[in-house]
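Need residues for this backbone.
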């Protein structure tokens, strides 16, 4: 059978060779970003943020419905509820949204009260 094998030292040329080298260099960075994103999404911080956003959305929908039934302007009510939801979510982002681990800890009577809540720190490159 006769067939053509091509040159043994032939290399890819053109735009395909350029993109393959570029993608080969960016692949480790993309993998690191995906791993960090997965860690962030499964963290307690993300869970608390999601719960806060869900609760704020439920409360806003309820309050808007009540205001609508009372005959108030829906756009003013929606804007007010949006601002309130933003404040709640920002408070959770700052770390003031809860410290459930330390909340029920008993303090000695001699010691002054301390603030167990610390700002949450999350390093994407752990």
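Answer:
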């Amino acid at each position: 059978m006769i067939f053509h094998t091509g040159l043994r030292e032939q290399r890819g040329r053109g735009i395909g060779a350029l993109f393959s080298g570029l993608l080969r260099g960016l692949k480790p960075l993309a993998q690191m970003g995906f791993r960090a994103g997965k860690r962030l999404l499964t963290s307690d911080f993300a869970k608390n943020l999601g719960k806060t956003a869900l609760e704020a959305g439920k409360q806003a929908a309820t309050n808007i419905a009540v205001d609508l039934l009372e005959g108030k302007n829906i756009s003013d009510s929606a804007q007010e509820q949006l601002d309130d939801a933003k404040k709640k979510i920002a408070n959770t982002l700052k770390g003031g949204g809860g410290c459930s681990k330390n909340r029920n800890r008993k303090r000695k009577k001699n010691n002054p009260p301390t603030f167990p809540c610390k700002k949450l720190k999350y390093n994407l490159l752990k």
